[in-house]
Design a protein that fits this description.
By secondary structure, the protein is mainly alpha-helical. The chain contains ten helices and five strands; from the N terminus they run ααββαααβααββααα. It has a domain at about 1-50: Multidrug-efflux Transporter Regulator, Chain: A, Domain 2, CATH 1.10.1660. The chain has helices at about 1-10, 10-20, 40-50, 55-70, 75, 90-100, 105-115, 130-140, 145-175, 185-205; strands at about 30, 35, 90, 115-120, 125. A hairpin with a 2-residue loop joins strand 1 and strand 2 (about 35). The longest helix has 29 residues, at about 145-175.
């Protein structure tokens, strides 16, 4: 414990307090010797970084609980399945910086539930660079992250329905086993229809103008 505290730049008393609060895992014991490892040191440094960003110990504890209940990266990404999305690896503090105070335990749990985030050791993996950057831009524009995640949940229902529709059409009319070339065509139809729907919606008069 003394070595761990020295490496982390904190006191032994603080390490003991964090362990009692469940912020770090118990050490591995061999007889009377307690062994701490790089995971414990990384967690202590994460706690220090989050405290500097204004998080409370209770908030950090909630984040740790949500983080540790998350699914493994292999389960979320479906290793071996082709995808056009680029995963992004983040430390907990980098994730907190991305969303400027919106990285609460509730929002983290919602993102884990959606499968946007996964865990890989002491790192967090976001499944899509595009979704991560878009979500961060919306937060900077003033939209709460909780609202963005709830909207994403609703969008997914429609996206799954569209995917089912295209899969049914392709399986009924395309005999070649390789349909990768048809994927951009399906996306093109959806993007064009969404663009035109937004055009129609934005042309509608505002409620106060009616």
């Amino acid at each position: 414990m003394e070595e761990l505290a020295r490496e982390a730049g904190i006191t032994v008393r603080t390490v003991r307090f964090y362990r009692e609060r469940g912020l770090i895992r118990p050490p591995r014991r061999e007889g009377r010797i307690a062994w701490y490892d790089d995971h414990h040191l990384a967690r202590l440094r994460t706690i220090a970084a989050l405290l500097e960003r204004g998080h409370t110990l209770n908030g950090i504890a909630d984040l740790a609980t949500a983080f540790e209940s998350g699914r493994d990266v292999g389960e979320v990404l479906g290793l071996g399945i082709p995808t056009e999305e680029t995963p992004v690896r983040l430390s907990p503090e980098e994730l907190a910086d991305y969303f400027e105070g919106e990285a609460t335990a509730e929002n983290l749990a919602a993102a884990l539930s959606l499968g946007y985030l996964a865990t890989d050791g002491d790192e967090i993996v976001h499944i899509s660079r595009r979704l991560l950057d878009t979500s961060a831009a919306l937060v900077r524009a003033g939209i709460p992250l909780a609202t963005i995640l709830e909207t994403a949940r609703r969008v997914r229902v429609h996206a799954e329905a569209l995917a089912d529709l295209f899969a049914t059409v392709l399986s009924a009319h395309i005999t070649t086993p390789d349909t990768a070339g048809l994927r951009p065509l399906a996306k093109g139809v959806v993007e064009a229809e969404l663009s035109m729907a937004l055009d129609r919606r934005l042309r509608e008069p505002a409620p106060n103008d009616a």
